[in-house]
Amino acid sequence: MRRVIRAALLAIVVWPAAAMACPIEQPDARGDRFAARVITQPSTIPLNAPFSLIVEVCPVVGDTAAEAITLDATMPRHRHGMNYRPEVTRLDDGRWRADGFLFHMPGAWRIAVEVESHGTVDRLTLDRTVP
Ligand SMILES: [Cu+2]
Fold first, then answer.
1. Which residues make Cβ contacts (< 8 Å) with residue 6, sequence separation at least 6?
2. Rounded distance, CA 109 to CA 75, Å?
3. Which residue of 26, 45, 55, 67 has the lowest C-beta tally within 10 Å?
4. pTM of the shown model
5. If you measure from the C-alpha of residue 78 to the centroid of ligand 1, how many angstroms do you get, rounded to a whole number?
């Protein structure tokens, strides 16, 4: 009896990961193992004012779900990053919200999404320009 219950619990725990084939048709960023859709709030990134990101991540290889993500941004041409560290919170399976992004200069920025899964990190990047 106990074994049956354990098997049932395992099925419940494993099911969401197995069900997560990548639903993102046009990802904003793509790595070796994961793809992401990144929505900024507001949709136009403001200069020198905080904004948020909604990040949806799904596997493009296999069906291993993302366990955690780390977000950062840099200006590659200027070789510097942000002066603030965004706070990332998990919304539900495969979705995160990041608050406290702030781009203090106009120009080309690169947002990096590092996706952790089973002890590995997949790095995805997307470029955005702040007018
Ligand atoms: Cu700069």
1. none
2. 5
3. 26
4. 0.81
5. 5
d(C-alpha 88, C-alpha 96), whole Å = 7
Asked if residue 98 lies in contact with residue 45, where contact means CB atoms within 8 angstroms, the answer is no
- pLDDT value at position 127? 97
> Structural domain boundaries of the chain?
2-130
Residue listed under structure tokens 């920025």: 109
Q: Write the CATH number of the domain with boundaries 2-130.
A: 2.60.40.1930
Q: Starting from the edge strand earliest in sequence, which strands make up the sheet with 34-41, in order? A: 29-30, 34-41, 51-59, 95-101, 87-92
| pLDDT, position 22 | 74
pLDDT tens digits along 79-128: 999 999 999 999 988 999 999 999 999 999 999 999 999 999 999 999 99
